[in-house]
Structure formats: C-alpha cells, structure tokens
Amino acid sequence: MCPYMYNFLYTRLLQHFLEDTDELWEKLCQRDFRGSQPEEMEQWREMYLRKHNEREMKYQKLKETMSSSIVKGQSGRKAQLAYMDTPVKAPRDVLRRQMKYGTGCVKMTKGPGVKPYKPSVRAPVYNPMAERPKVVKPVPPMLAKAMQMRKNMRR
C-alpha cells in the first residue's frame, strides 16, 4: 500500500474514533479541570489537550523560578562559626564536677611555662573509698498507700 493511501485511511479512522470518544474526553475534562467548558467550536479532546499544555507550561515556569531563586539565595550565603577566636568551653555541669572532685585539665597560661590546674580551697578532695551516707528518699503518699494495700491483701 502506498504511503498516501495509508495516511488517508489513518486520518479517516482517527476521525471516526474521535467522534465516539467525545464522552470519555468530557469525563476526563470534568475530572481534571473542574468547571471548565470548551470554547466555541472546540471539542472536549481539544480542550483537554489545551488545558493539559497550559498546566505543563505553568509548572515549568514555576520550576524555573524556584530553581533560580534557590541558586540566587545560595550564592550570597556562607556558613560561619560564631566564636572562632575563643577557646572551647566545657559544659557547665562538667566544669562544676571538675571543681567538686578536683579533676580537670592543664591550663595554658600566657607565660612560657605550663602550670597544672589547682582546685580552689573550697573544693573537697574526692576519696572514692570513703563510705557515702545513704540518702533515703521519701516515698510519695500515693505509692505508700498502694504498698500498704498490697501488703494487706496478702494476709
């Protein structure tokens, strides 16, 4: 079959099927583009394709503006450390425990020598072998009542 004949038959069959599928295109249009009506002398298929292309163009434009704003925003930003020239400090609770137990690191002084860290007179000397007094925590009233009820139930 020659190509002219093939194209002719193809367009005739396509026109025939397009007329039968108009209801399907209408349902697709109602589902995807609510409240839209075809323009004058426009079929539902043409309207669907037009609206679909408009949506794609809108998304492309939005994508371009977002990517350009991200690139523009990142060009001027730079991460910076807040305190680069000051030495690192330990957390407060660590410093308190070091003071309490007399431990700690060697401090550097401005002079040429290195002096070891000496705790203040206020800090007690830590002896791990010394016996610690037992601290009795008070029992909450509701727990005491529940324990008493449990004790009475076993009798």
UniProtKB/TrEMBL annotation:
Domain of life from the UniProt record: Eukaryota
Classification via InterPro entries: Elongin-A_domain, RNA_pol_II_trans_fac_SIII_A
Keyword Metal-binding among UniProt keywords: no
Coiled-coil spans in chain: none
One GO BP annotation of this record: transcription elongation by RNA polymerase II
Swiss-Prot/TrEMBL keywords: Elongation factor, Protein biosynthesis
GO cellular component labels: elongin complex
Record has Cell membrane as a keyword: no
GO molecular function per UniProt: translation elongation factor activity
PANTHER family: TRANSCRIPTION ELONGATION FACTOR B POLYPEPTIDE 3
Entry protein name: Transcription elongation factor B polypeptide 3-like protein
Native species: Elysia marginata
Upper lineage: Eukaryota, Metazoa, Spiralia, Lophotrochozoa, Mollusca
